[in-house]
Amino acid sequence: MNRRALFQVGLAGIGVAAMPGRAWALKYFPKASGKKWAVLYATWCGSARDAAVWISEGMGGIADAFDVREEADLKQFDHIVVGSAIRMGKISPELQRYLEKNRPWVKDKVRGLYTVCGNMQQPITQEVIKSQITDHLAPLCGADSVPAHVFLGRVTPILLEPEVREMMKPMGEYDNLKRTECMAFGKEILSRV
Questions:
Q1: Is residue 4 part of a domain?
Q2: What CATH number should be reported for the domain holding residue 181?
Q3: Percentage of the residues of the chain whose pLDDT score is greater than 90
Q4: How far apart are CA 86 and CA 92, in angstroms?
Q5: How far is it, in rounded angstroms, from Cα 134 to Cα 128?
Q6: 48 assigned to some structural domain
Q7: Can you give the pTM of this predicted structure?
Q8: What is the mean pLDDT of residues 107-123?
Q9: What is the span of the domain harbouring residue 126?
Q10: Cα dist from 4 to 1, 7, 8, 10, 13, whole Å
């Protein structure tokens, strides 16, 4: 490669890096749809984010995925799927605040709910679904009678805060989140609308 070509490639790279951060905001190349879909999620280790993307894939890629920390204005969306990683039996404080603040308009748009948790690497039971979805996430959204799912998650210790990492040390690193399970849930949500 000659110097001129190298210089041009370098300038192109700088131009791409200089694009505003919001232009990259977790857009996952959704397909056109008659209605606008969003998946709003909160995550600690990225498992709820991956579930959001895979749920959208199961829906044919029509939903944009938004981390609650983006503080995205989702009022223009027709349908919303809400999900969160679970820590100590609760969703993230940021998602809880978002839902409490926006419940008046969110409640009519929620089409699906999900959580992602380690569950001590045990199978998900009806009791887990009740405690995480029915008794916790659904009331925060003001939603009922929508598809709901609890996925087994993963732990990536390096992404945890030091005190949480120490507490989770006996569990080790694991990954039980299944793409096929998330995609099937996306198909289920879409089939019910």
A1: no
A2: 3.40.50.360
A3: 63
A4: 7
A5: 9
A6: yes
A7: 0.79
A8: 92
A9: 21-191
A10: 8, 5, 6, 10, 14
Residues 6+ apart with CB under 8 A from 116: 43, 47, 48, 51, 83, 84, 85, 86, 150, 151, 152, 153, 177
CA distance 7 to 23: 25
Is residue 177 assigned to a domain? yes
Asked if 110 and 146 count as a contact pair (C-beta separation under 8 A), the reply is yes
Q: Where are the alpha helices (DSSP H) in 25-114?
A: 47-58, 93-106
Residues in Cβ contact with 150 at an 8 Å cutoff, skipping those fewer than 6 apart: 114, 115, 116, 117, 119, 124, 128, 129, 132, 133
Domains: count for the chain: 1
Section 48-75 average pLDDT: 96
Residue pLDDT, tens place only, 20-51: 444 444 454 445 557 899 999 999 888 999 99
* Contact by Cβ (8 Å): 7, 49: no
